[in-house]
Design goal:
Number of domains: 2
CATH architecture of the largest domain: 3-Layer(aba) Sandwich
Strand order of the largest sheet: 8-9-7-6-12-13-14
Helix content: 25-40%
Strand content: 15-25%
Radius of gyration: 20 Å
Number of helices: 11
CATH superfamily of the largest domain: Methylesterase CheB, C-terminal domain
CATH class of the largest domain: Alpha Beta
Mean pLDDT: 87
Low-confidence stretches: 138-156
Number of strands: 14
Length: 343
């Protein structure tokens, strides 16, 4: 650690002392993370975070009083802070409660092991370092002036919508999918998320989406009015004959990768509609640029409504974004874009 760098300041919300001690040791192992304090109830957590103003909150998703979701909501309403949730209840590799926590405002989720091995502890600290760089904001909920998407004529092909998101994405994705009633196009989704929680993401999106949601299957025909979510650990692409392709290559920082999805959809020319939501990093920027250069329509979430503006900003800097819109206008913009494609 650079001795001149201040340590990342963390608050831990965990009720079991044994689990708490192991977690604190894992966090502080390299000396670049400092635990400021600990709480075991939502009320104490809200007070502690307000007093200490940490960089990141690490929260046990299963507090005994069932207050974890309430704690997240209260923290984001009163003292917006990057929140990492840990879940030990993933025996079947499905955790809808973890995804619900992300929708409530947490930025990321990791499985909580029985014991923090050096490898798992290193992954935990890497995640903390990433989240400590996020500037968390209160999302505006008021009405905004409508911004109409500039539509371009279609190419005669069947329209297809590709959506990608990362940090803060499940909440944004839920908002967009809820507004796609009757959409006459397949919707392909890449969400950066730990593979253990992709089952929970599917269950949550199935409840909120206006369209049927399913996990993408290799060589499956992409049907209009259906949402296909990329499984954890596999890239999702669309072939020229509208069939889904899953692949574990190339090895990239994120798998599934937004760039892989967007680049494949770009082959469909003016029938392609790419949508880039909140997220950290640059994944998706080059793929969105490919869609834009091939005559497709490209939308991105604006900075004010993003949890993290990294991915949309990277795309905007490349000149890949046709329309930068508030989250609550994206679904309507997608509807107009699909309608504008001549089939």
């Amino acid at each position: 650690m650079n001795k001149q760098s201040a340590p990342i300041r963390v608050v831990v919300i965990e009720d079991e002392s044994a689990q708490r001690d192991g977690l604190v040791q894992a966090l502080q192992r390299d000396g670049d993370i400092a635990v400021l304090g600990m709480a075991n109830t939502a009320a104490d957590a809200v007070t502690l975070v307000a007093e200490t103003r940490p960089d990141v909150v690490v929260l046990d998703l299963h507090l005994p009083d069932g207050s974890s979701k309430h704690a997240i909501e209260q923290l984001m309403a009163r003292t917006p802070t990057s929140i990492l949730v840990l879940s030990s209840r993933i025996d079947d590799r499905r955790s809808p409660s973890a995804v619900e926590a992300l929708v409530s405002g947490a930025l990321d989720a990791l499985p909580r092991p029985i014991r923090w091995t050096p490898e798992l502890a290193a992954e935990l600290r890497r995640t903390l370092h990433q989240l400590s760089k996020v500037q968390v904001i209160r999302h505006p909920r008021g009405s905004r002036k409508d911004t109409r998407t500039n539509l371009r004529p279609g190419s005669g092909r069947r329209p297809v919508v590709a959506i990608a998101a990362s940090t803060g994405g499940p909440s944004a994705l839920a908002t967009v999918l809820a507004g796609l009633h009757g959409l006459n196009a397949p919707v392909l989704v890449v969400q950066h998320l730990h593979p253990d929680f992709t089952g929970g993401l599917l269950e949550w999106m199935s409840r909120v989406s206006a369209l049927p949601v399913q996990t993408a299957q290799h060589d499956q025909a992409a049907g209009a009015g259906q949402v296909y979510i990329a499984p954890g650990g596999s890239h999702l692409r669309l072939s020229t004959d509208h069939r889904l392709e899953l692949a574990d290559q190339p090895i990239t920082l994120h798998r599934p990768s937004a760039d892989q999805l967007f680049s494949s959809v770009a082959q469909h020319g003016a029938a392609a509609i790419g949508v880039l939501l909140t997220g950290m990093g640059e994944d998706g920027a080059r793929g969105l640029l490919a869609i834009h250069r091939n005559g497709g329509q490209t939308l991105a979430q604006d900075e004010e409504s993003c949890a993290v503006f990294g991915m949309p900003r990277a795309a905007q800097r490349l000149g890949a974004v046709s329309d930068l819109l508030p989250l609550d206008q994206l679904a309507a913009a997608i509807q107009r874009a699909v309608t504008g494609v001549r089939v």
